[in-house]
Write a structure and sequence with these properties.
alpha/beta; Rossmann fold; formyl-coa transferase, domain 3; 2 domains; 3-stranded antiparallel beta sheet; 17 helices; 36% helix
Length: 419
């Protein structure tokens, strides 16, 4: 269920001071913002978040011309208010401490100990606000031999083993380790961080068990990378055997992979014996399901080569759409391998309202910003879409006035380049 901009979300009343930049931290705070929290994004004067400049591609203005604002920034910063503050300046630090004293949550992704010099670390801020929930996101965590290292998604995809199980085997054409096409460790870290923050809010505020106190959250990209190995990690821990790359073949299911068709490719995702039996009936090969080599999933995995010798030529006898039409009403999972453009053109994607357009009235010639809908569908407190990703410092004056800062002081702060 989509919500209009006037509805209140589940986190209405929660104040978040967002000191993070790039992707993992902003992804976490966008989740909170989508759920109704008031997220104040603090950026560097003039430069702003690094991702504002990570282009092309860039946003286009209403005349269709490229701006200098990268679309990357818009992926993870809607529903936020942007202020610019120089935290290296003592007056900037004082402003941020004042904001933290009134906040429910602070999120930051500086290097370990990086904010202590500004008095913006957890130990400093919790004395001002014992209810504060403070989430630090780093590459490797707050302790351990790698704690001081900078961490990036690509580096962690390599270190955690994800790249070793992504891509074709070395002996196949195009073989070798590959990164995932999206910065998935950053995204997953943002999701884990937002979950941890929600848990901490409940631990603080729960009417029956709440302590009334905030807490510190230590999130590390490497920890998340190891966690999202999921069944592959479980398999290694159970057997001591490291999994390898197998392209699009599933290591524990068969047939569960892509196949060439007469005009392209199709994805067949048979996850149980019933689905395989229905597939065999649909292709007029019922004897395959009775063959001891293929009757069970375990047998099919063990005899994958023999099974594919039969299926590969069969799958090339029909077009992709013919396969989908044949199998979709028989409860056999089958679908196209879309480009991103084809995915956005899909009728189900259209029906679910995945592509959203948010108005932005910032005087920069960009009337609307396209964004991807949050997939959480809450019936009573739905996700809200209140504002497009902000321009740099768009809300500085507004937020400072809410804090009670006088017009004279705001003018002086601008003159001194504090904001």
């Amino acid at each position: 269920m989509m919500s209009n901009s006037t509805a209140k979300g589940a986190l209405a009343g929660i104040k978040v001071l967002d000191l993070s930049r790039v992707l993992a931290g902003p992804w976490a705070t966008q989740m909170l913002a989508d759920l109704g929290a008031d997220v104040i994004k603090v950026e560097r004067p003039v430069a702003g978040d690094d991702t504002r400049h990570w282009g092309p591609p860039f946003l286009k203005d209403d005349a269709g011309n490229d701006t200098r604002e990268a679309s990357y920034f818009t992926a993870c910063n809607r529903n936020k208010r942007s202020i610019t503050v120089d935290m290296a300046h003592p007056e900037g630090q004082a402003l941020l401490r004042q904001m933290a004293a009134e906040a429910d949550v602070v999120v930051e992704n500086f290097k370990v100990g990086g904010l202590a010099q500004y008095g913006l670390d957890y130990d400093s801020l919790k004395t001002l606000n014992p209810k504060l929930i403070y989430c630090s996101i780093t590459g490797f965590g707050q302790d351990g031999p790698y704690a001081e290292r900078a961490g990036y998604d690509l580096m962690v995809q390599a270190m955690c083993g994800l790249m070793s199980i992504t891509g074709h085997a070395d002996e196949q054409p195009g073989g070798g380790p590959l990164k995932v096409g999206v910065a998935v460790i950053d995204v997953f870290t943002g999701l884990y961080a937002s979950n941890a923050i929600l848990a901490a809010i409940n631990a603080r505020d729960n009417a029956r068990t709440g302590t009334g106190e905030g807490q510190y959250i230590d999130m590390a990209l490497l920890d998340v990378g190891m966690a999202v190995l999921a069944n592959q990690a479980a398999g290694y821990l159970a057997t001591g055997q490291a999994p390898g790359r197998a392209g699009n073949i599933h290591p524990s299911l068969a047939p569960y992979q892509d196949f060439k068709t007469s005009d392209g490719n199709v994805l067949l995702a048979i996850g149980n014996d019933g689905q395989f039996t229905r597939f065999c009936a649909a292709v007029h090969q019922p004897e395959w399901a009775q063959d001891a080599r293929f009757a069970t999933n375990t047998a099919r995995v063990q005899n994958r080569t023999a099974l594919l010798a039969l299926m590969v030529p069969l799958m090339q006898t029909r077009s992709t759409q013919e396969w989908i039409a044949l199998l979709e009403d028989k409860a056999v999972p089958c679908g196209p391998i879309n480009t991103v453009a084809q995915a956005f053109a899909d009728p189900q994607v259209h029906h679910r309202g995945i592509a959203q357009s948010l108005p932005r009235q910032a005087g920069d010639g960009i009337g609307h910003v396209a964004t991807v809908a949050n997939p959480m569908r809450l019936s009573a407190t739905p996700v809200t879409y209140r504002s497009a990703p902000p321009t740099l410092g768009q809300h500085t004056h507004e937020v400072l006035r809410e804090m009670g800062v006088s017009e004279a002081r705001i003018s002086a702060l601008y003159a001194d380049q504090v904001i």
